[in-house]
Structure formats: structure tokens, C-alpha cells
Amino acid sequence: MRALTPAVGLSLVGALALTACEPAVEGSPQQVAEAMAVALETGQFGAVPLVDGIPADAQAQRQEAYERLGELPLDVEVLGVTADEDEGRAEADLRLTWDIPGDGDELVREAPLRMRVAEGEWAGAWEHALLGVPAGQVLALEETAPSRRADIVDRDGEPLATTRPVWHFGIDKTRVEAPEAEQSARALAQAAGLDPEGYAASVAAAGPEAFVRLITYRQSDGDGHRLVESVEGIPGAAALDAEQVLGPSRTFAQPLLGTVGEVTAEMVEEDPERYAPGDVVGLSGLQAAFEDQLRGQPSLRVVALDPDTGRDELLVEHAAPPPEPLTTTLDADLQQLAEDVLSDVEPPSALVAIRPSSGDVLALANGPGSEGVSTALAGQYPPGSTFKLASALVLLRQGLTPESTVQCEETLVVDGYEFKNVTGYPELALGEIPLSTAMANSCNTALINERDRIPVDELAAAARDLGMGAVWEMPVTAFSGSVPTEAGSETEAAASLIGQGSVLASPAAMAAVAASVAEGRPVVPRVVLDQEVPEPEGTLTPEEAEGLRTLMRAVVTEGGGSMLADNPGEPVLAKTGTAEFGTDDPPRTHVWMIALQGDLAVAIFVEEGEFGSTTVGPLMDDFLTRAS
């Protein structure tokens, strides 16, 4: 036994020496799995030790498999690792999760990562299946736009802007020989009353298979039906059935409702993730301001797609909620009435009707002379004598009453400038007269004579208390008015008292002034029913408002608003106004009238007319009579 002992001891030492000399294996299965998870997220495989593949191949396969997913964020998690150290093999379970926008399930795929020891280190075996999709397939995110745009509706849910059937008229160059196409284009343009040569040039420049649109008519339009008959006799001419989002008529609240059409190149360039060429979107007005609500979000689906055959397998789907209608404050009947009242007015014009108790704009019409411009909301004009309500408010605050005496003269010179009353001012309303008579007949000199009682800053404060210059936070361009707090000269200060000089307002602003008088507080108008309006600055006491209403009633009972005295319904209160502009002699005039009847405040404006009483008075009479 003793002879064997040294031999046994030598054998153990030799074994220990051999074990100590074996090279250590670099890394670990956990490290390889975590590196692979990062690489799958980022597409950078350079830091992952690989067998059965190289980083460049892995990166290329990942790019091909995921490029149709766009920018969907990917998170890869190592769920667990099992290893057989003796065999030098291991396996990890990876979970790939894509976060898909909207409500619904995420896209989750699981894949095994096989690892082994190669050349003294742990390395991962690259397989296409690690991408969560078999070889020969790619992952693709597909969007499906809502089938139709949501409506803009009136306060009672009546559709205003909605999808309506139309005809697209044009030349289909596949249906006419090239030499005849221009001749057909001229004939179609002549039938539509448009420029024949301009359209013929457009047709000539288009491709051989193009449909070159000339004009679109709604199918309820008589002109469209007449043009359909003309199309039948013109080679290559066509009337294509289509649908388009339109209002009840071409002009119906158009600047407010806005237009819908193909996205512009500028919009695509500015926001390529949101818009693509050919998208139909809101281009102006409420259609643009509430684009996301009205257009809605697309439904999303992720599929495993075979690019060669086009076959796909649905993996996950997010069905988007339908687009939501936008409810305006408009009353469809009153809006149509306002459109009708202005239909024959040639200069730019506007009619705005507000419900004082809520600030809801019930009608917001622009006449045909405005040619699509938002005169009603965004116009900036001197309001003339309708602004005398602000001047009168300062006098009431100075202690005057509607019965207080003021001096009305034929002319009054201020700092070398001669102020006059309107042509035809009644002689019986000259001299010492009650303030109510001065307001009823719109005596300019009476208020200017009181200019020492009406400092410019107090006039501006009174205007603010009547809602002028308030913050409206309208979703579309709007002008609430502006009144200077300082005057550049004594003449300018005097002009401000009668709503000229630097005083400016929109028809909507003057309707809000009338509404503020009716309600006894500053009224902020709104055009969207659930719109929260800011609390206006300024104060107006019930006594002050009652005094202003008395002055406005006098305009109807003894002044320029007498045509409204017998209107049906509650008593009408009003104020007329003219504002001179230009350099003509005699000067041209903007003409105004604002009125109150119950819970209705109305402003009507015509850019050029005779007097508020003669030009606008009949329009106001027509509107209030038919609105009763």
C-alpha cells in the first residue's frame, strides 16, 4: 500500500494541472441573449457574437422584415435562459413586442435563441425566425381610412357639411382621338361658361390616358343637369359620379364650415407622417380646425405578408372608433334665412345673429359680394354710429340719463376738422335735445360736444365692457374689435366717439355688443356648441344695460330704425350706423345696423351703401320679420 501511495498522489496532481490549463469560455448565455435583444430592437448586430451567420446578413434580414412596419417601436425581452454547460449549449426565450397606436392588443411574437460555445466563447446561432416571422415573409402595418368623413351639423343635429353626390365634368382622353381632344375641351368649357382656351391647353398638356377635370357640380344643381345633357354630344366628355363633402349650398356658411379637398403639396411636405399625396382633408374653416375629429383615425392591422404572392395572415388589428360629428351653434333655418336676406346685396356684406343668453352664433352669413371672404367674422371696419353705444355708456357712467340734455348742432369744428351729421338729418332734432333723441337720430355733434366727459381711455374701457376686443378663442380666424386707448390728436379722439378714426370691428363683434346690451354683461360668441368660452374682462351693471336698451328703443320709436316698430313679436331695439371711407366727395360709406329682439341680437353690415336706415334697415326688417 505504501508503494502505491506516491503513484496515486502524482495522478491527482496531474489531473489538477490539466484542468487549470483548459482555457476559460468567454461570455455567458445570458449576456448573448441580452445583446441579441438589443440588436433586434436597434438593428445593430455588431456587438453580438454569432455563429451560422454574420452581423451584416442579420441586419439586412431585419430591415427587410420590418421596413413595412414604419416607425413602430419594438421592445425585446429575455424571458429566460437554460444552459447545458457540459455540452456547451444553451437556449433563451425572447419576446418581441410592438406598440401599435390606439386602443387594442400589442403585437407579440416569441422566438427561441439557440446558443453554443464556439472558438472559446458563447455565441448565438442566427436564424430568420428570431425576427418573429418565418423566412419568406415580412411584417407589414396596414392602415384603413374611415369610409367617410363625419358631418358638421347644426345645433339640432341637422347635417350642414356632409357627403353629397356630385358630378365631375371633364375630358377623358382615352375616349377621344388626340387631335379632337382640344376641340372637345373647348366645347365643354363653352357649355359650362368657362375659359375654353385655358381648359383646352390643360387637356393638351395632360397624359394620353388622363381624365382632365373642368368643374364639379352637385347633382342637385340645375346647372349640373344642363351640363350633363351637353356632355352627351361632345366626344370624350364625361360626367363622373362621385361624392364630395359640401354644405347645403355653395355659399351656405362657407367661410365658417370650410372646404374639403386633396391635401396640398405643402401640407405633405410639412407633415409627411400625417399626410400622403391623394389624402382628402379639411383645407379651411372648421373642416381644417377639427380635422382629426372629422376625419377620424385609421384602423390598423399588422399582417405576416408574403411579398411574392401577396398572401397575408392577420396577426393583430386595431379598429378605430368612427369619426365624430362636429356640432355647431348654427340654426340651419336662421342661417338659410340670413343667406336669403343677403342674396341680392352686391357689395361685400354680412349678417350675424347671436343668442345673448348663451353667446351661441345662430347665423353667420356672408353675401355674394364677399366672394368667399369671411366678412362676418374676420372683417375689420369702422363701426360708425353703432359704436355710439360705447360713448353713451361713458355718459351714463358720468351721471347722465337718456333724458339728459345734450347739444346737437349742424356742424362742429374740432382742431380745424369739420364734423357733420348725416345728410338729411332732421332739423327738429337739432339744438338742446334729450340724449335719447340724439341717439335715435344719430347726432354726431351731440356726442362730440360731450368729448370732455368721454376720455379716450374710458371710451376704450366702455367698449371692452360691451365685449369689444375680448378674447374669443374662436377655432377659425375672427376679429373681436379694437379701440385705441390713446388718441394721436383731438380730431382722432372726436372721431372715435362716433365709431370712426382707429375704431374697428367685425360684424360679429357688433352683434356681440348688441348681445352684451341685451344680457347686461359682456357676451363672448361661440360657433361650436360645446366650446368653452373664456370669461370676458370688464363689467356692465344692470342699470347701465337698461339705460342703453332705452336708447336703442328710441332709435325704433322715433329715429332711423322706425321700420322695425311694427315687427311681430317682442319690441325691437336697434342702432343704425354709417362710417365714411375713401377720398371721394361726397365720401363713400360703410353702413350698419344692430338690433335686439328678445333673446336675439343681430348685426347687418354692407360695405358700401347709403345709410344704415335706408340700406340695411329693410334687410334687418326682412330678417326679423321672417325669423319671428
UniProtKB/TrEMBL annotation:
Localization in the cell: Membrane
Main location group: membrane
Signal peptide: 1-20
Annotated source species: Ornithinimicrobium pekingense
The keyword DNA damage appears for this protein: no
Catalysed conversion reaction: a beta-lactam + H2O = a substituted beta-amino acid
SUPFAM superfamilies registered for this protein in UniProt: beta-lactamase/transpeptidase-like, Penicillin binding protein dimerisation domain
Protein name: Beta-lactamase
PROSITE patterns from the UniProt entry: BETA_LACTAMASE_D, PROKAR_LIPOPROTEIN
Penicillin-binding protein transpeptidase domain ranges (all copies): 351-622
InterPro entries registered for this protein in UniProt: Beta-lactam/transpept, Beta-lactam/transpept-like, Beta-lactam_class-D_AS, PBP_dimer, PBP_dimer_sf, PCN-bd_Tpept
Domain Penicillin-binding protein dimerisation: start-end pairs: 146-306
Gene Ontology biological process terms from the UniProt entry: cell division
Any Pfam family hit: Transpeptidase
EC number: 3.5.2.6
Keyword entries, A-Z: Antibiotic resistance, Cell cycle, Cell division, Hydrolase, Membrane, Signal
Family, similarity comment: Belongs to the class-D beta-lactamase family.
